[in-house]
Structures are given as C-alpha cells and as structure tokens.
Amino acid sequence: MSISYDCNSSDTRQAGLSAAADAVRAGQLVVLPTDTLYGIGCDAFDADAVRSLLATKGRGPDMPVPVLVGSWTTIDGLVLTVPRSARTLIEAFWPGGLSLVLPHAPSLAWDLGRTRGTVMLRMPLHPVALELLRDVGPMAVSSANRSGRPPATTAEAARDQLGDDVRVYLDGGTAEHAVASTIVDLTGGAPRVLREGAVSTAAISEALGVDVAVE
C-alpha cells in the first residue's frame, strides 16, 4: 500500500521525507519531485531495488538507471576520475538540469544495468529531492512513468501510472520546467551532448569554451 505526502505543507513535509528515507533504506521505491520531472528512485547500491525499479517501469537492464546526488563532492567517490570539463560544468549548472556521463569507480558495488563502466550523474535543483538525497545518499532515479508513457509532471500523474509498486510519493507540486535534463557524455576525448533538454548546447559550449558536438 502506497502513501502520498504533501511536501508543500510544513505539517506533512518532514513526515514524508522521513517515510521516504525509511522506504529507500528498506529497498523500496519512492517517487520524488525534481526540478525537471518527477522521478522514481531507490538506493543506488541496492541491486534488488534497482531491478524492481526497472521492472516497475517495464524496462530492461539495457537502459541503465541514472544516479542523483545531493552535493557536488559526492561525485568524487562515484567516478574513476573527475576531468576539468566535468568540474566546469558542475560549477556552472549544478544543481540543475544537466546530467553528466562519466566512467564510474570500478570498486563500487552497484548494478544500475548495462552501463558499460559508466554512470550518469545529476544534482537536482529541488529542495525536497536534495534533502532526501543528503539523508540517504546517492539514489538511482529514472523518470516516474511506465515505459512508453509520458513522464510525470505531478505526483498524482506518477501515482496513476505506478500505483502501489511505489511505497512513498512525495508531492512537491507541478514540475517547474517539465523538461528532461540535458545529457553530456564526458567519457571520450571531447564532450558530446547525447540529449538536449533543460540546458542548451550553446550554454554548455560557452561554459567549456569549445563547440560541443550533438549526437
């Protein structure tokens, strides 16, 4: 049985965050608001929970789950090395709608799907998401929708699709931007935009001081 908490109300926000943190630690799924779209998430280091997330969405391991973090410094423990280009983009756009693909640290005991040794990381610009992430640590988070259906821009829309497969819904109102994050691949010799979304390619090129290619 799932339960929803209105995080716009101070009376229920802390209760919701506490319930969501307990659910994450118990290997269950939660829906949380972000600055882009609503996400369905779990403990990034709980392989069973990640498999449950993929099954709930109706996706396979060929589409790995991104990871959300609650601070800039968290990235240092998750990736093999942090190139200067990543630092520059983090300083320019985090927290915000920019996801970075980097080689993950080989010592990490996680299974996010067929990542080919990489991880996609983002720090969202939403107080509810950040508070939860800072409590429980990195979370595997994908858009809160069944595969092939529209991403949810409200907690109610997410619940309509995902139902009781999710333990806790954190309702933070309508997603402010309702657009997916921009994805930049930093695993090769030059940055590449894999998907343009909340942050424009022009803004990324300006921050890095080079013209960035778009896949």
TrEMBL record:
Q: Which InterPro entries match?
A: DHBP_synth_RibB-like_a/b_dom (IPR017945), Sua5-like_dom (IPR006070), TC-AMP_synthase_SUA5 (IPR050156)
GO molecular function terms attached to this record = ATP binding; double-stranded RNA binding; L-threonylcarbamoyladenylate synthase; tRNA binding
For this protein, the Enzyme Commission number is 2.7.7.87
Q: Which Gene3D superfamilies match?
A: DHBP synthase (3.90.870.10)
Catalysed reaction, written as an equation: L-threonine + hydrogencarbonate + ATP = L-threonylcarbamoyladenylate + diphosphate + H2O
Q: Name one GO biological process term.
A: tRNA processing
- GO cellular component labels: cytoplasm
Protein location = Cytoplasm
Keywords of the record: ATP-binding, Cytoplasm, Nucleotide-binding, Nucleotidyltransferase, Transferase, tRNA processing
Q: Which domain of life is it from?
A: Bacteria
| Pfam families for the chain | Sua5_yciO_yrdC
UniProt cross-references to NCBIfam families, sorted A to Z: L-threonylcarbamoyladenylate synthase (TIGR00057)
Cross-referenced PANTHER family: SUA5, THREONYLCARBAMOYL-AMP SYNTHASE
Q: Which family does it belong to?
A: Belongs to the SUA5 family.
What's the protein called, per UniProt? Answer: L-threonylcarbamoyladenylate synthase
**Origin species:** Actinoalloteichus hoggarensis
